[in-house]
Amino acid sequence: MTNMQNIKAGPVPGGLRNIEIGRLLLEGRAFFALIVIVAVFSALSPNYFTLGNFLTMASHVAIFGILAVGMLLVILNGGIDLSVGSTLGLCGVVAGFLMQGVTVGGYTLYPPVWVVAVLTCVFGALIGLVNGVLVARFKVPAFVATLGVMYVARGAALLITNGLTYNNLGGKPALGNTGFDWLGFNHVFSVPIGVIVLAVIAIVANVVLARTAFGRWLYASGGNERAAELAGVPVKRVQVSVYALSGLCAAIAGLILSSQLTSAGPTAGLSYELTAIAAVVIGGAALTGGRGTLRGTMLGAFVIGFLSDGLVIVGISSYWQTVFTGAVIVLAVLLNAVQYKRRPKKLPKNAVPA
Amino acid sequence: MSEAFEPGVVLAARDIVKTYGATRALKGVNFEIHRGKVTTLFGENGAGKSTLMKILSGVTTPTSGEIVLDGTPVTFASTVDARDRGVSIIHQELSLAPNMSVRDNIFLGREIRTATGVDYAEETRQAAALMRELEEDIDPATPVEELRLGQQQIVEIARALSVNARILIMDEPTSALSASEVEVLFKVIRDLTSRGVSIVYISHHLEEALQITDYAVVLRDGAMTATADRSAIDLEWIVRHMVGEHYDRGSPPTGYAFGDVALSVSGASVEDKNKGVLLVDNLSLDVRAGEIVCIYGLMGAGRTELLESIAGRVPLVGGDVRLLNRSLNGLSIAQRIDRGLVLVPEDRQRDGLVQTMSVGENLTLASIASFVRNLLTQPGKEKSIVQDSIRDVHIKTAGGKAAIGSLSGGNQQKVVIGKMLATGPKVILLDEPSRGIDIGAKAEVFRLLAEKASQGLAVVYSTSEVQECLSVAHRIIVMSKGRITAEFGPDVSKEDIMAASGEAVVH
Q1: How confident is residue B383, by pLDDT bands cut at 50, 70 and 90?
Q2: Is B369 in CB contact (< 8 Å) with chain A?
Q3: What kind of membrane protein is this, topologically (chain A) (predicted)?
Q4: B456 pLDDT more than 60
Q5: How confident is the model at residue B7 (pLDDT cuts 50, 70, 90)?
Q6: Suppose B82 and one of A221, B58, B266, B322 were both cysteines; which one would form an S-S bond, judging by CB atoms 3.0 to 4.6 Å apart?
Q7: Which pLDDT score, from 0 to 100, does residue A156 have?
């Protein structure tokens, strides 16, 4: 057919090659943006391009990055999770609460740190499950459901702590619950544990998205839920799962953050959900679902992290940082619109016979 | 309102050609609309009726050819432009805002403004006047959602009249109306024509259309095949020109014996929850392995509801569906696919394809388990499955990685069919598998079904095109109002099928 002949047509003319470069720039925009950011700040400050600084920045990125992985799953499904910032805060508080000892029937139990970590993760996943059930079973719009859970979780964190902060997370050797600072302060070959956790989560998520049936189901139900359902995809189960996974990611991020800060406060993670959404969007994912990659989201998280830390290092006021971050997000969404609008338009051009 | 008008041509289409990609939807159509007369367009699905109407009402522009309005060539820049020149269209799906009142709908987008806002009093007065003209007792303040469908149609007409439409295009206006509402509509149409308004009427109900029309124009495969005065034609004439005799769409596969009953539906009923009426009414049907059954019926006959309830998408309120003598009641869509029952849905874009995924990913979506080992997909195996599928159902594509949107409608349909065939089904249901695909692709789809049936697959497909009943089906079942009204062998005549569907009574 004409269609195929055009696709197979001989040598690529020069004009087309320019278009290819344009498309490469467009599709790899987060990557190029990251390179530009690193280059500009390295030129502006001698402290920026050092191993130590990169590791520090990476450990900042770890928190947003982990949230962004969970957010990507939700956004690929065509939803949104506004509750992750609050879930992060509440999970930190729950961990802090458990570290203070749990009084059961007159005895005070001090669970070891790994038990605290596991319980906190389960708790975070349960909060996500609530979101998922609200959205999938009760058909509450994702925006509203997670907005509600966002308030409830933040309120619960304030109630548990009575508005105060748990400052004593160190534990006592005699009680066998030391080591909470491990996540935030330890290094493996001088790489912070938080960054390693992010890397592990990212790799696992990438394999899940690219190589498992669940990943395929997720892309399909985000792209066209009705078609996916008719093809036998368990769309409800997928939907519930992504919110639970997002809650789990928020709990892990909460543990790392409170470990880094050696304190668990009820206001931790305020508005982090927006940063996570921004990372996903900068990474090229479509908010309508079905389109987006883990690689892009990670680049998005690093663009935001390296940009804001760079602005701090060169001494630009935090007010300006906010303005810059906002501008980058708008630019990213603008480019998303350009990218997704272009594709279908190309087809008729090819298809029209000469 | 008794102004005299000259009978004659008010709007004419000259040599209209419209191409979408490689598809020629209209191949040089000439078409005239007479002042104060009803002109009916006849044609099967995909014949080009809606494309022509879209061009006449400014929704889209022709690739070549011209539109002549009152003797002067014109180009409609948009529907608003066409409306301003007196051409209005009432679409099959009503375009009213159900939450707003009759008055607000009539003046939507062209509110009568004063210095301080909208002149609601004047709008109400004019809306009430329009309702009186149409002899409908509807309060302009009533929210549209509280009106019956027929009354909503009247509101649409009122809206068209409120901009002084001289030419009114009605696309399937009666498909959702009751018999008495159709009477009201016809009275309104006669009233309008007596005032000089020209009507273009499109309907699948041939008899109904013959009651109201003055001129008949028949389209087939994008070309006009006949045009005549009402007095010169009858039903047989329309059917002959609509369907044509020239095209062979295959014959039922022979040379093998049918197997056991693969699909058994008994006493199935499906309810429309909003209206409390039965869309499928106590229907029973057996299909054997290797058999091809065609379900013919008009829009609203309950074909889609029947197929979707068998596939598990909509619940049955009564009855039983059995596959290979095991009950499917209560099973999910996914479980039914596992047992060997699959559905190819009617609306390819909405229910069949995931536009964000490639051809290959769409093809394997229903059978991912076949290439997953240790939780991971095996790309090599997937690739070979995709290539086999592409060969098996004859998809013309640059490869499995191609974007699904790069395929033609016919090839997209083959992807949806191939996707369900890849699950290794025992029974395949296809809801209007030929909808919106060109004639060559239709033949290929039916050839594919015949081939699979001869290998033991039980095939059930629905259609609203009578010619397609007479292609590969061993048995033709006619549905009307949720029931089976007739059952024929492959040698039945078109007229008998149409008569049984309630579409036409041929003597």
Answers
A1: very high
A2: yes
A3: Multi-pass membrane protein
A4: yes
A5: low
A6: B58
A7: 95
**Residues of chain A with C-beta less than 8 angstroms from the C-beta of B406:** 3, 347, 350-351
The pLDDT of residue B493 is: 82
- The correct CATH number of B9-243 out of 3.30.360.10, 3.40.640.10, 3.40.50.12160, 3.40.50.300 is 3.40.50.300
**Interface contacts (A, B; CB < 8 Å):** 109
pLDDT for the residue numbered A196? 92
Residue B337: list chain A partners with CB under 8 A: 231-232
Task: Answer whether B429's CB lies under 8 Å from B341's CB.
Answer: yes
Confidence label for B273 from pLDDT (cuts 50, 70 and 90)? confident
pLDDT, tens digit (0-9, with 9 covering 90-100), for B247-272: 566 788 888 999 999 999 999 999 88
Residue type, B39: T
Structure tokens that stand for B183 in this block? 């009477």
- What is the overall mean pLDDT for chain A? 85
Q: A216, A218, A230: which to substitute to probe chain B, counting the most B Cβ within 10 Å?
A: A230
Instruction: Report the gap between the CA of B262 and the closest CA in chain A (Å).
Output: 20
For A35, residues 6+ apart whose C-beta sits below 8 A from its C-beta are none
Give dist(CA A187, CA A192) in Å, integer: 4
Q: Which of A8, A226, A233 sits opposite B350 (nearest CB)?
A: A226
The pair phi, psi for residue B397, each rounded to 5°, is -150, 160
Backbone angles phi, psi at A6, to 5 degrees: -65, -40
CB atoms within 10 A of CB B469: 26
* B9-243 and B247-340+427-507: identical CATH topology: yes
Architecture of the CATH domain B247-340+427-507: 3-Layer(aba) Sandwich (3.40)
Give domain limits for chain A.
58-334
Closest partner residue to B366 (CB to CB) among A212, A232, A351 is A232
**pLDDT of res. A350:** 34
Structural domain spans, chain B: 9-243, 247-340+427-507, 348-424
CATH code assigned to A58-334 = 1.10.3470
